[in-house]
């Protein structure tokens, strides 16, 4: 009977919906939760085990023995039926994780589905209320210290504010529509850390925050997405909701150290930390700098943007690593990577950006992304440094 049950389980995996992970859509399923009735990848199965057997009971599809009752429940449920129950009320603003997304997103998605049942009982979705208030640890912009700050999110005011101690006036007031938020565990170390990036007087500003509780930091992340979606719907009433949802937050397409020179071959290379944030290519002295030294807007190829391996015509730089350059309507920006595979990854990421059609939000960004220099005069957003 054990062999028969095992074969029945393997046949169930072939059914529509069961061949991909029920939680992250990974194309390889190796496990099943036999009490919930879903098929899972290895990573998600590990998270299910951490929930406890009172919530999810896990077995390997091939290595474990299967009982008749367990197989029967899998036959009755399966991924498609389970999704109808556990994902019935997932709000559009909620980011459904894929297999390559940050681990914290996948963990909290699974806990939200099966442990807290947030998408069965919509009243549990505190992040969709348009407001949120609480304390987060914020990194200082001058050193590595982190101090608690009170943060207040208001969709009605289109702001995220944070306060120092008991002061009545906020230390900073950030427009929700001007911000991006991304998980940054590699930079701040805690897996529960976020990088908030926004426009401040024509330039980009970064702040880094974290909370000890993974559920809380993900709630902040989703609350910002929810508020931003509602504000975008007001600003762009004819644009489909699902299209707007795609621009709520963006993981950085690529980050890392590159060497960059100025507009002339004689300017020399300087090592900078680069971040590709949508259509903004920013460079910094160090990875946790609060402000970039310069920002390059990456437009569409039809507007004169292109990416090339090697040096611009007429340049004859020697012994400077693996060179590539970005051609813009203003000038060419020349970069050098330490490895050929790193250069290829940068080129692929930038090619993806210039091939993507410009959205209304991109056009807005291009209009406001300026750089202020001495005397307060506003100049082009292309920096020569």
UniProtKB/TrEMBL annotation:
UniProt domain Arf-GAP: residue ranges: 7-127
Keywords associated with the record: Metal-binding, Zinc, Zinc-finger
Keyword Zinc-finger in record: yes
Domain PH: 129-229, 251-355
Signal sequence residues: none
InterPro entries listed in its UniProt record: Arf-GAP_dual-PH_domain, ARFGAP/RecO, ArfGAP_dom, ArfGAP_dom_sf, PH-like_dom_sf, PH1_ADAP, PH2_ADAP, PH_domain
Transmembrane segments: none
Entry-linked PANTHER family: ARF-GAP WITH DUAL PH DOMAIN-CONTAINING PROTEIN 1, ARF-GAP WITH DUAL PH DOMAIN-CONTAINING PROTEIN 1-LIKE PROTEIN
Entry protein name: Arf-GAP with dual PH domain-containing protein
Record lineage: Eukaryota, Metazoa, Ecdysozoa, Arthropoda, Crustacea
């Amino acid at each position: 009977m054990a062999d028969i049950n095992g074969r029945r389980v393997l046949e169930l995996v072939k059914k529509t919906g069961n061949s991909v992970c029920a939680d992250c859509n990974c194309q390889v399923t190796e496990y099943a939760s036999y009490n919930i009735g879903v098929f899972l990848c290895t990573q998600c199965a590990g998270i299910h085990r951490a929930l406890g057997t009172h919530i999810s009971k896990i077995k390997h599809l091939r290595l474990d023995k299967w009982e008749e009752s367990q197989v029967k429940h899998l036959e009755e449920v399966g991924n498609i039926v389970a999704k109808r129950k556990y994902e019935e009320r997932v709000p559009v603003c909620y980011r459904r994780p894929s297999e390559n997304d940050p681990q914290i997103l996948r963990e909290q998605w699974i806990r939200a589905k099966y442990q807290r049942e947030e998408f069965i009982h919509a009243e549990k979705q505190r992040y969709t209320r348009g407001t949120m208030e609480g304390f987060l640890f914020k990194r200082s912009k001058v050193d590595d210290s982190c101090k608690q700050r009170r943060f207040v999110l208001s969709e009605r005011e289109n702001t995220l504010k944070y306060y120092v101690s008991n002061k009545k006036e906020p230390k900073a007031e950030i427009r929700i529509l001007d911000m991006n938020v991304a998980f940054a565990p590699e930079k701040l170390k805690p897996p529960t850390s976020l990088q908030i990036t926004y426009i401040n007087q024509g330039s980009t500003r970064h702040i880094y925050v974290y909370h000890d509780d993974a559920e809380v930091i993900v709630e902040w992340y989703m609350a910002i997405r929810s508020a931003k979606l509602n504000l975008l719907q007001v600003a762009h009433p004819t644009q489909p909701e699902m299209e707007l949802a795609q621009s709520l937050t963006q993981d950085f397409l690529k980050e890392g150290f590159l060497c960059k020179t100025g507009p002339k071959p004689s300017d020399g290379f300087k090592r900078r930390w680069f971040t590709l944030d949508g259509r903004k290519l920013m460079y910094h002295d160090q990875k946790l700098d609060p402000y970039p030294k310069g920002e390059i807007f990456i437009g569409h190829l039809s507007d004169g943007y292109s990416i090339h391996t090697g040096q611009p015509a007429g340049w004859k730089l020697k012994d400077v690593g693996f060179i590539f350059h970005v051609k813009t309507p203003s000038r060419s920006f020349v970069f050098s990577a330490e490895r050929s595979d790193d250069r290829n990854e940068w080129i692929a990421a930038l090619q993806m950006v210039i091939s993507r059609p410009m959205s209304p939000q991109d056009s807005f960004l291009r209009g406001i992304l300026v750089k202020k220099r001495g005397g307060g005069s506003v100049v082009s957003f292309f920096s020569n440094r």
